[in-house]
Amino acid sequence: MRKFVHSALFVLLATGAAGANDFQSELETLANGQISEIATSAEVVSAVQARNGETAGYDQAKIDELDKTWRAETEAVDQPMIDATLENDLSGYLADVQDGSDGLFTEIFVMDAKGLNVGQSDVTSDYWQGDEAKWKDTFGAGAGSVHISELEEDESTQLLQSQVSVPVVDPDSGEPIGAVTFGVNVEKL
User: Fold this and answer.
1) 12, 114, 166, 179: which could form a disulfide with 17 (CB 3.0–4.6 Å)?
2) Does the residue 135 lie in any domain?
3) Which of 126, 101, 131 is CA-nearest to residue 115?
4) Per-residue pLDDT tens for 105-114?
5) What is the tally of structural domains in the chain?
6) How confident is the model at residue 21, as a pLDDT?
7) Where are the alpha helices (DSSP H) in the chain?
8) Which of 139, 52, 41 is nearest to 92 (CA)?
9) How large is the average pLDDT for residues 160-179?
10) In terms of pTM, does the model score above 0.70?
11) The domain that contains 129 carries what CATH number?
12) Under the phi-then-psi rule, with left for phi > 0, alpha for psi from -120 to 50, and beta for the rest, what region is 111?
Protein backbone atom coordinates (compact mmCIF):
# COMPACT_ATOMS: atom_id res chain seq x y z
CA MET A 1 0.00 0.00 0.00
CA ARG A 2 2.77 2.46 0.92
CA LYS A 3 4.46 1.92 -2.46
CA PHE A 4 1.15 2.64 -4.21
CA VAL A 5 0.60 5.81 -2.16
CA HIS A 6 4.15 6.98 -2.89
CA SER A 7 3.70 6.23 -6.60
CA ALA A 8 0.36 8.04 -6.73
CA LEU A 9 1.80 11.05 -4.91
CA PHE A 10 4.84 11.06 -7.18
CA VAL A 11 2.58 11.07 -10.26
CA LEU A 12 0.62 14.00 -8.82
CA LEU A 13 3.84 15.84 -8.07
CA ALA A 14 5.39 15.11 -11.46
CA THR A 15 2.29 16.28 -13.33
CA GLY A 16 2.01 19.44 -11.30
CA ALA A 17 -1.30 18.35 -9.80
CA ALA A 18 0.07 18.19 -6.25
CA GLY A 19 0.79 21.19 -4.10
CA ALA A 20 0.37 22.52 -0.61
CA ASN A 21 -3.42 22.29 -0.76
CA ASP A 22 -3.50 18.52 -1.27
CA PHE A 23 -2.53 18.03 2.38
CA GLN A 24 -3.49 21.49 3.65
CA SER A 25 -6.13 20.32 6.09
CA GLU A 26 -3.98 17.56 7.61
CA LEU A 27 -0.97 19.86 7.85
CA GLU A 28 -3.00 22.63 9.50
CA THR A 29 -4.33 20.13 12.04
CA LEU A 30 -0.76 19.00 12.75
CA ALA A 31 0.42 22.63 13.02
CA ASN A 32 -2.33 23.55 15.47
CA GLY A 33 -1.82 20.39 17.51
CA GLN A 34 1.47 18.56 17.95
CA ILE A 35 3.65 21.22 16.31
CA SER A 36 2.18 24.04 18.40
CA GLU A 37 2.68 21.96 21.55
CA ILE A 38 6.36 21.57 20.74
CA ALA A 39 6.67 25.29 19.83
CA THR A 40 5.30 26.22 23.27
CA SER A 41 7.48 23.78 25.21
CA ALA A 42 9.74 25.19 27.90
CA GLU A 43 12.78 23.88 25.98
CA VAL A 44 11.92 25.89 22.86
CA VAL A 45 10.66 29.07 24.55
CA SER A 46 13.55 29.39 27.00
CA ALA A 47 16.18 28.77 24.29
CA VAL A 48 14.63 31.41 22.00
CA GLN A 49 14.35 33.93 24.82
CA ALA A 50 18.01 33.41 25.73
CA ARG A 51 19.15 33.71 22.10
CA ASN A 52 17.08 36.86 21.56
CA GLY A 53 19.02 38.41 24.43
CA GLU A 54 22.26 37.61 22.60
CA THR A 55 21.23 38.68 19.08
CA ALA A 56 19.02 41.71 19.79
CA GLY A 57 21.75 44.14 18.78
CA TYR A 58 22.78 42.36 15.58
CA ASP A 59 22.52 44.47 12.44
CA GLN A 60 22.13 43.10 8.91
CA ALA A 61 25.90 43.13 8.33
CA LYS A 62 26.44 40.89 11.37
CA ILE A 63 23.60 38.58 10.28
CA ASP A 64 25.07 38.32 6.76
CA GLU A 65 28.53 37.58 8.20
CA LEU A 66 27.15 34.76 10.38
CA ASP A 67 25.15 33.31 7.49
CA LYS A 68 28.22 33.40 5.24
CA THR A 69 30.29 31.60 7.89
CA TRP A 70 27.59 28.93 8.32
CA ARG A 71 27.26 28.33 4.58
CA ALA A 72 31.03 27.95 4.25
CA GLU A 73 31.11 25.50 7.16
CA THR A 74 28.51 23.25 5.50
CA GLU A 75 31.21 22.40 2.93
CA ALA A 76 34.16 22.36 5.37
CA VAL A 77 35.74 19.68 7.55
CA ASP A 78 36.03 22.07 10.51
CA GLN A 79 32.54 23.25 11.54
CA PRO A 80 32.76 25.10 14.88
CA MET A 81 29.63 27.22 14.40
CA ILE A 82 27.53 24.29 13.16
CA ASP A 83 28.89 22.00 15.88
CA ALA A 84 28.07 24.52 18.61
CA THR A 85 24.48 24.72 17.36
CA LEU A 86 23.99 20.98 16.91
CA GLU A 87 25.45 20.29 20.34
CA ASN A 88 23.25 22.70 22.30
CA ASP A 89 20.40 21.52 24.54
CA LEU A 90 17.66 22.69 22.19
CA SER A 91 19.13 20.77 19.25
CA GLY A 92 19.26 17.65 21.43
CA TYR A 93 15.60 18.13 22.33
CA LEU A 94 14.61 18.64 18.68
CA ALA A 95 16.59 15.55 17.58
CA ASP A 96 14.74 13.52 20.23
CA VAL A 97 11.39 14.85 18.99
CA GLN A 98 12.30 13.95 15.41
CA ASP A 99 13.56 10.51 16.41
CA GLY A 100 10.32 9.85 18.31
CA SER A 101 8.07 10.90 15.42
CA ASP A 102 8.22 7.53 13.60
CA GLY A 103 9.40 9.27 10.42
CA LEU A 104 6.71 11.98 10.42
CA PHE A 105 9.24 14.79 11.00
CA THR A 106 12.18 14.90 8.60
CA GLU A 107 13.76 18.03 10.11
CA ILE A 108 13.02 20.56 12.84
CA PHE A 109 14.67 23.93 13.35
CA VAL A 110 13.95 26.87 15.62
CA MET A 111 14.69 30.51 14.76
CA ASP A 112 14.99 33.61 16.94
CA ALA A 113 13.49 37.09 16.49
CA LYS A 114 16.10 37.87 13.80
CA GLY A 115 15.42 34.64 11.89
CA LEU A 116 18.71 33.06 12.99
CA ASN A 117 18.92 29.37 13.87
CA VAL A 118 18.73 28.65 17.58
CA GLY A 119 18.59 24.85 17.43
CA GLN A 120 17.96 22.13 14.87
CA SER A 121 17.65 18.40 14.52
CA ASP A 122 19.87 18.35 11.40
CA VAL A 123 22.15 20.83 9.64
CA THR A 124 20.36 23.46 7.57
CA SER A 125 21.92 24.89 4.42
CA ASP A 126 21.87 28.41 5.83
CA TYR A 127 21.90 30.08 9.25
CA TRP A 128 19.60 33.02 8.53
CA GLN A 129 15.98 32.18 7.70
CA GLY A 130 14.72 35.75 8.20
CA ASP A 131 14.43 36.40 4.48
CA GLU A 132 12.22 33.36 3.89
CA ALA A 133 8.44 32.88 4.08
CA LYS A 134 8.76 30.24 6.81
CA TRP A 135 9.93 33.00 9.17
CA LYS A 136 8.23 36.08 7.69
CA ASP A 137 4.78 34.48 7.51
CA THR A 138 4.90 33.21 11.09
CA PHE A 139 7.04 35.50 13.25
CA GLY A 140 5.85 38.50 11.27
CA ALA A 141 2.20 37.42 11.19
CA GLY A 142 1.73 36.87 14.91
CA ALA A 143 0.43 34.23 17.27
CA GLY A 144 -1.70 31.54 15.67
CA SER A 145 -0.21 31.96 12.20
CA VAL A 146 0.81 28.95 10.14
CA HIS A 147 2.94 28.73 7.01
CA ILE A 148 2.74 25.58 4.89
CA SER A 149 5.11 25.21 1.96
CA GLU A 150 4.35 23.49 -1.29
CA LEU A 151 4.74 19.75 -1.49
CA GLU A 152 8.25 18.78 -2.62
CA GLU A 153 10.21 15.59 -3.08
CA ASP A 154 13.38 15.68 -1.01
CA GLU A 155 16.28 14.80 -3.31
CA SER A 156 18.31 12.99 -0.68
CA THR A 157 15.53 10.98 1.01
CA GLN A 158 13.09 10.64 -1.93
CA LEU A 159 10.29 11.52 0.52
CA LEU A 160 7.37 13.77 -0.31
CA GLN A 161 7.31 16.50 2.27
CA SER A 162 6.09 19.93 3.14
CA GLN A 163 7.54 22.41 5.62
CA VAL A 164 5.15 23.56 8.33
CA SER A 165 6.08 26.63 10.36
CA VAL A 166 4.50 28.36 13.36
CA PRO A 167 5.65 31.21 15.59
CA VAL A 168 7.26 30.65 18.97
CA VAL A 169 5.23 32.85 21.32
CA ASP A 170 6.17 34.41 24.65
CA PRO A 171 3.77 32.84 27.17
CA ASP A 172 3.48 36.07 29.17
CA SER A 173 2.98 38.66 26.42
CA GLY A 174 1.46 36.48 23.67
CA GLU A 175 3.87 38.09 21.20
CA PRO A 176 6.03 36.10 18.76
CA ILE A 177 9.66 35.74 19.84
CA GLY A 178 10.77 33.37 17.09
CA ALA A 179 9.52 30.60 14.82
CA VAL A 180 9.86 26.86 14.30
CA THR A 181 9.82 24.85 11.07
CA PHE A 182 9.07 21.15 10.72
CA GLY A 183 9.75 19.11 7.62
CA VAL A 184 6.72 16.78 7.44
CA ASN A 185 6.71 13.50 5.53
CA VAL A 186 3.16 13.66 4.11
CA GLU A 187 3.09 9.90 3.59
CA LYS A 188 2.99 9.56 7.40
CA LEU A 189 -0.07 11.79 7.87
Assistant:
1) 12
2) yes
3) 131
4) 999 999 999 9
5) 1
6) 60
7) 2-14, 24-30, 36-39, 42-55, 60-73, 80-86, 89-99, 133-136
8) 41
9) 96
10) yes
11) 3.30.450.20
12) beta
